[in-house]
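About this split. The held-out portion is used to measure sequence recovery: a designer receives only the structure tokens and must propose an amino acid at every position. Recovery is the fraction of positions where the proposal matches the reference. Here is one held-out target exactly as it appears in the evaluation file.
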């Protein structure tokens, strides 16, 4: 691990929620932003917009194809993070895939408990379809809690009878708020960022007194039948390793096309370290190829697109 990577991880560790004396949400958000924020690449234009009634950041790489669209939901334990903190990561993924991306500023806990974030994710997805985006030309991605939220959004869209996107990428997804995975304990000493107490504190703030096993709060426990192709990337040195492994297993058992990549010796959402860590750049390249490979080459036919209400 490079010195820069170690310093970034140490900064994130200092900003993470600690059970002994929990910081305020504002303190957490400021610390997270200071540790993680990287600007969008120079050749990726950004602009503020609104999607699904929420602020959002649109990122458009130079020479991006007008055909494909990426919807991104950021990580941060449902408590911290924003499109700004993730502009670099989302911009890099969009640039490598040649796709216009929209990153949604969904509502955060504890001010807004579950299912507020899910409602925002679904509203954003619904508006993209209603505005004429062909689902065959739409892909999704998310990291950490944003990965879990992306999966929950897919499930909610399926239950609403909406067409699903062409493919989805998950970076270190958090999909089990009950913390039942073995790695929550077995990887605690290896994880340079989180402890079980850190993850539990985020779950407490997101769900409150609600049911942590609810299939839209912990989508690992949902019926995954009918989902589009999935790519799951995770580091071997993280307490959420088993979330990714079990998600891939359950998706595969449900007949979903799924690819699982486990990076030896890598931490949570190691893709944030693009440009400093070879494994991060290689992972983003693979993720971009996965998304573009599943986008339909056909042009959308306006005569066969109906507004989604």
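Reference sequence for scoring:
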């Amino acid at each position: 691990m490079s010195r820069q990577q170690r310093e970034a991880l140490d900064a994130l560790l200092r900003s993470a929620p600690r059970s002994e004396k929990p910081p305020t949400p504002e303190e957490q958000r400021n610390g997270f932003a200071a540790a993680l924020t990287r600007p969008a690449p120079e050749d990726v234009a950004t602009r503020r917009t609104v999607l699904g009634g929420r602020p959002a950041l649109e990122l458009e790489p130079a020479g991006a194809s007008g055909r494909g669209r990426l919807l991104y939901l950021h990580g941060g334990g449902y408590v911290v993070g924003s499109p700004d903190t993730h502009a670099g990561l989302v911009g890099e993924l969009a640039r490598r895939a040649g796709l216009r991306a929209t990153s949604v500023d969904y509502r955060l806990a504890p001010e807004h408990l579950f299912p507020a974030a899910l409602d925002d994710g679904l509203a954003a997805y619904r508006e993209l379809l209603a505005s004429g985006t062909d689902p065959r030309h739409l892909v999704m991605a998310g990291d950490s809690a944003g990965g879990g939220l992306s999966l929950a959004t897919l499930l909610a869209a399926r239950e609403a009878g909406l067409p699903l996107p062409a493919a989805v990428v998950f970076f270190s997804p958090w999909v089990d708020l009950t913390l039942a995975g073995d790695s929550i304990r077995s990887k605690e000493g290896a994880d340079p960022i989180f402890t079980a107490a850190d993850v539990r504190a985020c779950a407490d703030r997101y769900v409150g007194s609600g049911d942590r096993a609810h299939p839209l709060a912990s989508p690992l426990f949902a019926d995954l039948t009918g989902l589009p192709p999935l790519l799951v990337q995770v580091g071997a040195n993280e307490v959420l390793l088993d979330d990714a492994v079990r998600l891939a297993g359950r998706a595969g058992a449900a007949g979903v096309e799924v690819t699982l990549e486990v990076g030896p010796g890598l931490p949570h959402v190691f893709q944030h370290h693009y440009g400093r860590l070879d494994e991060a750049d290689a992972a983003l390249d693979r993720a971009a190829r996965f998304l573009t490979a599943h986008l339909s080459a056909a042009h959308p036919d306006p005569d066969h697109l109906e507004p989604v209400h």
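Annotator remark: The chain has nine helices and eight strands.
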